[in-house]
Write a structure and sequence with these properties.
The protein is built from five helices and seven strands; from the N terminus they run H-E-H-E-E-E-H-E-H-E-E-H. It is α/β, with parallel strands linked by helices. Strands 1, 3, 4 and 5 form a four-stranded mixed sheet that branches. Strands 2-6-7 form a three-stranded mixed sheet, with helices on one face. The termini are far apart.
């Protein structure tokens, strides 16, 4: 993921930490900030993966408890391990996609899942490094998917 996405510090060259999208942390951030919409960047980085994943919740190794909230205690969080949902990868080049309809169905399924889980519209999807490599989804489409009217 780091190499494909060129995730290295510009000045230091140090590798940046990369991982699967963490829905629990995003839900926590939304709870604090009340997002009206989101942008997903670098979807194209996932184009060649056999599987793509999303962290749905955590598992406390000490207590055996599934945790569906952000622990307030950092020590508890340190004992947790992510639980992930796996999706079949789309194995298709998305960098040439210019509209939602151009994306492979499996990529759309992944974005739709994230949107439904977060209950926040995903209005923009980055599919490459260029400024114009962004797909803008209509508010009507995203509102329908999350079952809310954000217009």
């Amino acid at each position: 993921m780091q190499k494909i996405g060129h995730e290295f510090g510009v000045t230091t060259g140090r590798p940046r930490r990369c991982g699967w999208i963490d829905l629990l942390q995003l839900k926590y951030a939304d709870n604090i900030n009340h997002f009206t919409s989101l942008a997903i960047t670098k979807l194209d980085v996932l184009d060649t993966f056999e599987e793509v994943c999303a962290v749905t919740h955590y598992y406390d190794e000490e207590t055996g408890e599934d945790i569906h909230y952000m622990p307030a205690n950092i020590k508890q969080l340190a004992k947790c391990r992510p639980r992930i949902k796996k999706f079949k990868g789309w194995n298709s080049d998305t960098t040439q996609c210019t509209k939602w309809e151009d994306l492979p169905q499996l990529a759309k399924d992944y974005v739709n899942y994230l949107e439904r889980e977060l209950q926040v519209p995903i209005r923009w999807i980055g599919v490459g490094p260029a400024r114009e490599s962004i797909i803008e989804r209509s508010a009507e489409l995203t509102a329908k998917n999350v079952g809310k009217d954000f217009l």
